[in-house]
Amino acid sequence: MGTYPVASLEARVGERLTLRKATLAAVESCTGGLILHRLTNIPGSSAYVLGGFVTYSNEAKMQFAAVGLATLEQYGAVSEQTAREMVRGVRSAFGATYALSATGIVGPGGGTAAKPVGLVYIGIAGPDFEDVREYHWAGERVENKEHTADAALSLLLEYLETHP
Question: Is 28 helix (H, G, I), strand (E, B) or coil?
């Protein structure tokens, strides 16, 4: 019997969203749109991808993803609190079933002792839950972006596969 190629992460997410008749929106900072790029590479993704924002600046995070100025001033753009407000904001803006957010420092510069290069926060939200996870990558800029997109898609897939 022959072997079959394993479906890509984004294809598996798409299959799960389609089965649930669910939709998705994303707000991305450090990934610059890579999460949605990967999802929209899948034929038929318009059935479940509603849209998203690339909010690279603090102003864009506030305007489009409803992140509060106080949050940015107190915790910074790269924080659990900002990722949480981002994911809430984009889910609300698009009326999506699920949402993802990503904010971090992918390098090579921009890191500090408190927030080093490779620090990333990924938010996920749905009808009855929300969560933010912290990650630390050790790669170069493009690798860190790819790791972040993989982690965001994996987080969503894990939820979709383990919760009815």
Answer: strand
